[in-house]
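User: Teach me something about this protein's shape.
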Amino acid sequence: MTTAHSSPPGLLALHALRLKGVGKPATLARRFAQDPDEVSELMLDFEACGWVRRVEFAGAGGWALTEAGRVENERQLAAELAESGAGPAVADSHRAFLPLNARFLTACTNWRIRPLPGDSMATNDHTDFRWDDRVLDELGTLGRRLQLLGAELADLLGRFEGYPERYAAALTHIQRGQRSWLDEPGLDSCHAVWFEFHEDLIATLGIQRGEESWPGSTS
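Assistant: First, the predicted structure itself:
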């Protein structure tokens, strides 16, 4: 059995920032189970290199990638992909993911909107249980597909571990009536996990959002 490739701490810390967008060291450290103090030191090193900068917005803030940091992250990921030999498998997973992504976006829309006569954009008030059950069934099916993709990728690149479990945990919250776990900011929601997985795929392959061939494929 082939051992999954382990990414170095510096790559993981910089990549965590790519996936999270903005984050404090503790948040970034949790993404790949790193030591917060080590991540804090790495961020200072990255700042000296011009790869990250401190940002503040509405009383909150943290570290964010600069354009140079984004380029460096993609350089590191490309080197890792070549070293690990996982390129073809990641590309195959990305192609398999695109139609699933379109379905996920539709499911999110159907969770928020339930068309009514005369109002095709009526807000879903969640009183039609059959409608909601169909959406939940679809989210569950997509979670099982994510489980397969995630397991295949984690066997090659260890940093892909955990996506299916996080998605399943968020879906369990929704199934228990906590509807905010679909896409509310600040939660490790189904949408947050799905978005990160998509970002991980395209970052690893050096693809920009909006440049993918499948219609409606950006989440």
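Now, about its shape. The longest helix spans residues 87-112. The CA atoms of residues 167 and 190 lie 5 Å apart. If you'd like, I can walk through any region in more detail.
User: That's plenty for now, thanks!
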